[in-house]
Design brief:
Layout: E1 4-5, E2 8-9, H1 22-26, H2 35-47, H3 61-73, H4 76-81, H5 84-101, H6 107-113, H7 127-139, H8 144-158, E3 160-161, H9 171-177, E4 179-180, H10 182-195, E5 200-205, E6 215-222, E7 225-229, H11 244-248, E8 254-258, E9 266-270, E10 274-278, E11 286-295, E12 305-312, E13 315-323, E14 329-335, E15 339-345, E16 348-354, E17 361-366, E18 375-380, H12 394-415, H13 421-430, H14 435-445, H15 449-458, H16 462-470, H17 474-479, H18 482-490, H19 502-507, H20 520-525, H21 531-539, E19 542-543, H22 556-562, E20 564-565, H23 567-580, E21 585-587, E22 594-598, E23 601-604, E24 620-627, E25 642-648, E26 651-654, E27 677-681, E28 683-692, E29 698-707, E30 712-717, E31 730-731, E32 737-740, E33 747-748, H24 749-753, E34 757-762, H25 768-779, H26 781-787, E35 791-795, H27 798-803, E36 816-821, H28 825-833, E37 843-848, E38 852-858, H29 864-877
Parallel strand pairs: 3-4, 11-17, 19-20, 24-30, 34-35, 35-36
Antiparallel strand pairs: 1-2, 5-6, 6-7, 8-10, 9-10, 11-14, 12-13, 12-15, 15-16, 18-29, 21-22, 22-23, 24-27, 25-26, 25-28, 28-29, 31-38, 32-33, 32-36, 34-37, 37-38
Length: 879
C-alpha cells in the first residue's frame, strides 16, 4: 500500500500551505459544489482558523473544491493525525473513478458518500487507491447493482467475519489480517465501494432490542435507490442478508453522513463534522413518539439531557441522546418496542419507559438525586418478529454458494502463508524464548507476523520485547508497524524498570483503545522530562470537544502538535507524555482520571483547562455481592446478566472492569466478585440485572446502593425469573429424514437421537448467525455434555457439508453429529409444521422423540447459551 505499512501512515508530507480564500472556490473550472454548498464551505473555512496548512496551487478546480469540502468538515483528530497528502491522493482517486466509470452519481451524493475517506472510527490509509486498481476492470461494463455485488464478492475474497475488540482496523489492515468483526467488514466494504465511485454508507444499530449485540452493514446507491447488503457476505441479489429479519425487530438504525447533509431522512443530530440520520424506516415499522420532561412540581424542564436507551449486555445503553426543547419535549422515530428513558439536569434525574405501540408520549419526572436509594422492576418487550420476503431462487443460491466457496479458497490460500506453529516454536527455541508465548504472538498477528518476528529477532533485549508484546492487545499485534514497537522498546527508560509498575504503566504504549503510535521518541525531543514541563505542555492545549464530535481517538503526538483536543485526548496525551518521561501513568480504575506515580503514591494529573486541580484519591469502601445459587441462572456474568454504573450528578457511568486489572471482575466477563469483597470509590451506584426470555423480552431489576468510606456494603444480586414451566409450543416430525455425515442413505432424526429430548438445528457453513450459535454451544459445552443428548446439525446439501469447517469449532460438545438435508425434506417439514422461517438460519429447536417442541429460535440470537442452559435446567427439574 502506498506510504503505509499495515494500515498506518508512515511518512507525512512536507510542510504545506493552505489557501482558503473564497476566490479559489469561485474560480474553479468545474462546479463540484453548488452555490449553497460553496457558501457553507466558505463560511466553515473562514471560521476554522486552527486548520493545518495545505497547498492547492497545483490542484485542478475539482480537486480544490473537493479538498476544501473535506477540510471544511474534517474533525480536529483527522486534521492533526493524518497528512493532507492522504486526503489529496484519495480525492484524486475518487475523481478518477468518477470520470472513468461514469456512474452518473449526483454531486451531492458524490460529496457525502464517495469523497469522504472516513467511514467510522477506523485508522485512515491510502487503501482506496489500491482497491481501485484491483476493482476497476472487475466492475467496468456492469450495471451499478451488478458492480455492488461484484465488489462485495471481492471483499469476501479478502476477509471473513470473526469477533474482535472495538478498535476498528483500517481497510488495508483488514486485507492483511483477512478477518474482522461486522464493524470492520462494513467499513472495509464501504471503502471498496467508494473506491470505484459508488455511493456507500455504513448502517448500524447500536444495540438490538431482542438479543444482546449490535450490528453494522452497508447501504449502496444504484440508479436512484439505496440498497442494503451484508459486508463480505455476498448474496445472489441486493436487499438480502441474514440480518433482514433482526432489522425488522430493530428499535433504531443510523448512519453518519460527512458534513452538512440535507437528505430526506430524519435527522437525529447535527455536529461539527457530520449529520446523523435515522434510517430505521428502511427496515422496520416505526412510530414517532415523545418524552415530556417535568420536575417534581409538574413544571416543564427545558434543556434536560434525555437518553433513549435499549437494554443490552446487562445495561441500559443510551442509543439516542437528545435535549428537551422550550416545551420540555423531545421526540424521535423508532421501531415498535419498549425503550428506557433517562433524563437529567443540574444533578436531578428521573426515568420512565415508553411503549410506542401503546402511547405517543412518556412523562419523565426528574425528582431524584445521587443520595436517593431505591429499587424497581421493569419489563422491556422488543418489537415482534415479522416475515421476510426472500426472492432468491434455489438455483441462484447454489450458484452464489459455489462462487463463495471459490472465494474462500482464494482467501484461505493467502491465510495459509501465515507462519505455522512448528516454524514459530523453532524460531522461539533459536532465540531462547518461551515457545508458547512466541507462538501466541505470531499466530495472533496473522498477516503482520513477519513484522512481529522481525521485532523479536532484532531486539537487543528480547525479554523486554516479549514484555512489550504482552502489554498490547491482540489487535495491536495485527497492525502495529515495527517502527512503533521499536520506539517504545528503545525509548522507555525509567528508574521504575524492574518494578511491577514498569511494564503496564511505562513500557506499554496502550492507554485506551486507540491506535498505538510511536510517540515516545518524539516527545523526548521536546524535553518533556519533568512533571512540571509536562503539566506546562498539557496546560497549553485548548479544550474543544465540539471539533471531534465522533470522539475519534486522537493520537497523543497529534494533540501536542495541534494543541486542540477533546478531554479524553488531552488526558491520553498527558499519560503518554508521562510515560515518555519514564514516569508511571494510568487512568484511575473507577473515575478514569489520569494519574502519575510519585513518592510511592498515585497522584492526579492537573488539567487547568478542565477546571480541575490536583486532588487526593477518593476514599474507598467495599462492595460485597451475594447471589442465591438456587436460582435458575447460575454463574452470573458481567455484561450478560448485570452491570454496575456509578451515578454522579444524575449521570450514570458504566463501570467497564476489563479496562483495568485493579478491579477484578474476572476473565471473559465472568464475574469473580460474587461472595468476595471488592474495593470501590465512595459514591452512589446502580446495579442493573436482566433475564432475557426466548422471545427477547427482558425482565430487569434495578437497585441503587452507596459505598461509604471504610465500610462494606452488602448487595444481593437478583435475577428475575419467569417461573412458568416448560411448555410445548409446537410439533415436528421426528421421523423426518436426513443423510448423516459419512453415509449415503437417509435415516430419521429419531434413529440418531434415540428417546428423550434432543437439539436439532438447520445451519449454513458461512454466515455470522450460525457462528454465534456454535460459539454458544462451545460456551456451555460442559452443560451439554452432562445433559448427554444428541445435537443434530443439518446443512442444506452434501456440498454445504463438505464446505463446513469443523476445525473452526473445536470445542463443541461430544454429542454433536452432522448431516445434510435429504432433498429438502427436513427443511420443508419445519416450514410446514412449525411455520418456521427457514430463510433465517440457523433454525434451532429443542424437542423430544414424540416431536413435541419446547424451544425454537431462528436467525441471529446471541442469548442462545443462556436460553439453552435455562431450558436444560427446567427439563432436568421437571423429571
Amino acid at each position: 500500500m502506498k506510504n503505509i505499512k499495515n494500515g498506518v501512515v508512515m511518512k507525512k508530507a512536507n510542510t504545506l500551505v493552505f489557501v482558503f480564500a473564497a476566490t479559489i472556490l469561485m474560480s474553479c473550472s468545474n462546479n463540484l459544489l453548488d452555490s449553497n454548498t460553496k457558501k457553507d464551505v466558505e463560511a466553515r473555512l473562514s471560521e476554522r482558523t486552527w486548520l493545518p496548512e495545505y497547498k492547492t496551487d497545483e490542484m485542478t478546480g475539482e480537486e480544490k473544491q473537493a479538498m476544501d469540502f473535506l477540510y471544511a468538515w474534517l474533525s480536529v483528530a483527522d486534521c492533526a493525525d493524518f497528512p493532507s497528502d492522504l486526503f489529496y491522493q484519495n480525492v484524486k482517486s475518487s475523481l478518477q473513478a468518477r470520470k472513468e466509470l461514469k456512474w452518473n452519481v449526483p454531486d451531492d451524493l458524490f460529496l457525502h458518500f464517495v469523497l469522504p475517506v472516513r467511514i467510522n472510527n477506523e485508522n485512515l490509509d491510502y487503501s482506496r487507491i489500491d482497491f481501485y486498481g484491483e476493482l476497476k476492470e472487475r466492475v467496468k461494463g456492469l450495471t451499478m447493482e451488478q458492480a455492488i455485488l461484484e465488489v462485495n464478492h471481492w471483499c469476501h475474497e479478502k476477509a471473513v467475519y470473526t469477533p474482535d475488540d472495538s478498535r476498528t482496523l483500517s481497510p488495508s489492515a483488514m486485507v492483511s489480517t483477512a478477518m474482522g468483526r461486522c464493524g470492520e467488514e462494513s467499513t472495509f466494504c464501504v471503502a471498496a465501494l467508494r473506491s470505484v465511485g459508488i455511493p456507500a454508507r455504513q448502517i448500524y444499530t447500536p444495540r438490538w432490542a431482542h438479543t444482546d449485540d449490535n450490528h453494522a452493514w452497508v447501504e449502496a446507491w444504484a440508479d436512484g435507490k439505496w440498497h442494503f447488503l451484508g459486508a463480505c457476505e455476498p448474496d445472489a441479489r441486493l436487499d438480502h442478508g441474514w440480518f433482514s429479519s433482526p432489522a425488522k425487530r430493530g428499535l433504531i438504525m443510523f448512519t453518519k453522513v460527512f458534513g452538512k447533509y440535507y437528505g430526506d431522512e430524519e435527522v437525529i443530530s447535527r455536529t461539527d463534522g457530520y449529520t446523523e440520520i435515522n434510517v430505521t424506516d428502511n427496515y422496520a415499522p416505526v412510530k414517532k413518539h415523545f418524552a415530556k420532561i417535568i420536575d417534581r412540581n409538574g413544571n416543564i424542564v427545558v434543556g434536560a439531557n434525555v437518553h433513549y436507551s435499549i437494554y443490552n449486555y446487562g445495561e441500559f445503553y443510551p442509543a439516542v441522546k437528545k435535549e428537551s426543547d422550550e416545551n420540555g419535549i423531545t421526540s424521535m422515530n423508532s421501531g415498535l418496542g419498549d425503550m428506557y428513558i433517562w433524563a437529567y439536569k443540574d444533578g436531578v434525574y428521573g426515568f420512565s419507559k415508553i411503549d410506542p405501540r401503546a402511547t405517543d408520549t412518556a412523562i419523565v419526572v426528574i425528582d431524584k438525586t445521587d443520595n436517593d436509594i431505591y429499587s424497581y422492576d421493569i419489563d422491556l418487550v422488543p418489537p415482534v418478529e415479522l416475515p421476510v420476503t426472500n426472492s432468491i431462487t434455489r438455483e441462484e443460491s447454489i450458484a452464489n454458494g459455489k462462487r463463495m466457496a471459490k472465494e474462500d479458497s482464494i482467501r484461505n490460500a493467502y491465510v495459509n502463508t501465515f507462519i505455522k506453529e512448528d516454524e514459530a516454536k523453532e524460531f522461539a527455541r533459536n532465540e531462547s524464548l518461551d515457545e508458547n508465548k512466541v507462538w501466541y504472538f505470531l499466530k495472533n498477528s496473522r498477516g503482520n507476523w513477519k513484522t512481529i518476528k522481525e521485532f523479536i529477532s532484532t531486539a537487543q533485549k528480547k525479554e523486554k520485547a516479549i514484555m512489550l508484546l504482552e502489554n498490547i492487545s491482540i489487535k495491536d499485534l495485527k497492525d502495529t508497524p515495527i517502527e512503533v514497537l521499536n520506539d517504545h522498546l528503545t525509548n522507555s527508560n525509567s528508574s521504575f524498570e524492574g518494578s511491577e509498575l514498569y511494564a503496564k504503566y511505562v513500557l506499554s504504549p496502550r492507554i485506551d483503545d486507540e491506535l498505538i503510535t510511536g510517540y515516545k521518541g518524539k516527545f523526548q525531543k521536546i524535553h518533556c522530562g519533568s512533571i512540571e514541563k509536562i503539566i506546562e505542555i498539557i496546560g497549553s492545549i485548548q479544550l474543544r470537544p465540539e471539533l471531534n464530535p465522533a470522539k475519534l481517538k486522537m493520537m497523543p503526538e497529534g494533540v501536542v502538535k495541534i494543541r486542540i483536543a477533546d478531554k479524553k485526548a488531552i488526558e491520553r496525551a498527558a499519560i503518554a507524555l508521562m510515560r515518555s518521561a519514564g514516569i508511571p501513568s494510568r487512568r484511575e480504575p473507577i473515575s478514569e482520571k489520569p494519574q502519575y506515580y510519585e513518592g510511592n503514591d498515585w497522584k492526579y494529573i492537573p488539567f487547568p483547562q478542565l477546571n480541575e486541580v490536583e486532588e487526593k484519591v477518593e476514599g474507598t469502601g467495599n462492595l460485597l455481592i451475594s447471589f442465591d445459587g438456587s436460582e435458575k441462572t447460575k454463574d452470573p456474568h458481567y455484561y450478560t446478566h448485570f452491570t454496575i454504573s456509578k451515578i454522579t450528578n444524575g449521570i450514570p457511568r458504566l463501570i467497564e472492569p476489563e479496562s483495568s486489572s485493579d478491579i477484578d471482575m474476572g476473565d471473559d466477563g465472568n464475574v469473580q466478585i460474587i461472595g468476595n469483597e471488592i474495593s470501590m470509590p465512595i459514591g452512589t451506584y446502580e446495579l442493573v440485572t436482566g433475564t432475557r426470555m426466548a422471545d427477547g423480552t427482558v425482565l430487569s431489576h434495578c437497585q441503587l446502593f452507596t459505598i461509604k468510606e471504610g465500610e462494606t456494603t452488602p448487595v444481593k444480586l437478583l435475577l428475575r425469573q419467569n417461573n412458568q414451566q416448560v411448555q410445548v409450543i409446537g410439533n415436528i416430525d421426528a421421523e423426518s429424514l436426513y443423510i448423516p455425515e459419512g453415509e449415503s442413505k437417509p435415516t430419521s432424526i429419531l434413529s440418531t437421537t434415540g428417546r428423550g429430548y434432543f437439539i436439532l438445528a438447520l445451519i449454513d457453513s458461512k454466515k455470522e448467525p450460525t457462528t454465534h450459535m456454535l460459539r454458544a454451544f462451545e460456551a456451555i459445552k460442559d452443560d451439554l455434555n452432562k445433559w448427554d443428548r444428541k445435537i443434530v446439525l443439518i446443512l442444506q446439501d452434501e456440498e454445504s457439508l463438505k464446505e463446513y469447517k469443523k476445525e473452526e469449532f473445536p470445542n463443541l460438545p461430544g454429542t454433536v453429529c452432522y448431516g445434510y438435508d435429504d432433498n429438502g425434506k427436513t427443511t420443508a417439514m419445519l416450514k410446514t409444521m412449525l411455520k418456521a422461517d427457514i430463510t433465517r438460519l440457523p433454525v434451532l429447536i429443542v424437542a423430544d422423540s414424540f416431536g413435541r417442541v419446547v424451544y425454537t429460535s431462528t436467525g441471529y440470537n446471541t442469548s442462545t447459551s443462556e436460553q439453552i442452559s435455562r431450558i436444560i435446567s427446567q427439563l432436568n427439574s421437571s423429571k
